[in-house]
User: Fold Adhesion G protein-coupled receptor A3 from Aplysia californica.
Amino acid sequence: MAASDQRRHPLFLLFFVLSVLLSVCNCCIQLPSCNCTMVGSSKRQRGRKIDCSQHPAPFKTLVGKSFPPDTVHLNLAHNALVALRQGSFIHFSSLQKLNLSSNQITIIEPGAFDGLKSLKKLDLSNNLIGTINSSMFSGLPNLEKLFFSNNRISTIPDGTFNYLPSLKRIELQSNYLRCDCHLKWILKWIKTRHVRIPSSTTCALPAKMRNKPLSKLKRRDLHCDHSVQLLTFNIRPSESQLVFKGDKLPFECHASYMPGDMSIAWFRSGHLVTTNKTMGVFVHTSHNLDRTIIIHRLVVESLDTTHAGEWSCVVSTSSGNLTKTVHVEVRMPDVVLQCPTVTNKTSKGMFTWEESISGLLGSQLRGEAADLCALGT
Ligand SMILES: *[C@@H]1O[C@H](CO)[C@@H](O)[C@H](O)[C@H]1NC(C)=O
Ligand SMILES: *[C@@H]1O[C@H](CO)[C@@H](O)[C@H](O)[C@H]1NC(C)=O
Ligand SMILES: *[C@@H]1O[C@H](CO)[C@@H](O)[C@H](O)[C@H]1NC(C)=O
Ligand SMILES: *[C@@H]1O[C@H](CO)[C@@H](O)[C@H](O)[C@H]1NC(C)=O
Ligand SMILES: *[C@@H]1O[C@H](CO)[C@@H](O)[C@H](O)[C@H]1NC(C)=O
Ligand SMILES: *[C@@H]1O[C@H](CO)[C@@H](O)[C@H](O)[C@H]1NC(C)=O
Assistant:
């Protein structure tokens, strides 16, 4: 039979189709929507390259996903992973490149990368990681390149990279990086360990240091004598409030976490506010999932006229205090002014106001309400 006839033979076609199918799918029978190819020439070096970065249904977890143990490159970029649990990669002793960029990773448990003894490149950029420390980088004796840009870390504790003896390069670019005394150690460390931090890794805060490459700074540039600056500091509600007696008034204060001696508190007319159940006042401090923001809540269950005044959230640090204040005006619902009424919709619902005071903020009202109404009639 001539070669061309042979190619048309039905058995050959079947064999051809099967072998194409096998070469694409053989490694990923459990992961049909990941691309998989064999790489490496000699039998000893052969391994799989698995690309799940264009997965039609992004992975939310790695639990229950079984990747073949001889995977050498694993690309999980552009998935929806939130947490990396301890021992997630424990069977991947051949893995050399792991790409976890552009997920929603917030939590990396201590020991998450244990077992990755051949890993050279780890890409964690474009995630939501708020804090890092040494325990999340254990088990990576051969890691050379760590990509960590565009996360939410504001600082890096001394010793974070102590378990990475082969490290040569780290990228840490982000809009959160605070170049102050807490990063002083890193300049000495990159010198003694010959680690490169490219000049794309720049400072975000304090304002004076913005856009300066971290690796080009001098030790004396990294101090904590700057006046206090926070990336996030706001209160809700932020505008003066006109409220009724008996209303419930919840306040929220959000402030970026700063390493060191930071504290946050509510004050009313200069006095510290603490939880007082008999008064129906509750104060509670928590933080967001990635621990980058402290949330300080205050709820007054039932307002009365004694709650009128200035309510302030104060962040105190050794380099100064920051304050945000909102003014509260408490109105008695049964006060009748000689004004026609209009209905107005506010964030607290529908209220009926005397015409001349509708739309005015509480701070403008004090003592003026009667005059305004008199003018209106
Ligand atoms: C697999 O690769 C092909 C061609 O390179 C591409 O068109 C396809 O989107 C990839 N699929 C996945 C799931 O990555
Ligand atoms: C990780 O994957 C993303 C998206 O596919 C790519 O842009 C990036 O260069 C990869 N990272 C590394 C270190 O190869
Ligand atoms: C690192 O942070 C994790 C939680 O974010 C914590 O459980 C662990 O104890 C920390 N390790 C060190 C060495 O500080
Ligand atoms: C709560 O407030 C009342 C009235 O101001 C006061 O007498 C009481 O001691 C306070 N209780 C606490 C636990 O602070
Ligand atoms: C900052 O606040 C703390 C506690 O709230 C207070 O003791 C300190 O005097 C304040 N410092 C300044 C400069 O206002
Ligand atoms: C309701 O109040 C807002 C300001 O808070 C004002 O701009 C608006 O005109 C008011 N609407 C009516 C119907 O008075």
Q: What stands out?
A: The longest strand covers residues 320-331. The pocket of 2-acetamido-2-deoxy-beta-D-glucopyranose (ligand 3) is lined by residues 110, 131, 133-135 (CB under 6 Å). The two ends are 109 Å apart (CA to CA). Confidence is low (pLDDT under 50) at residues 13-26, 335-340, 352-377.
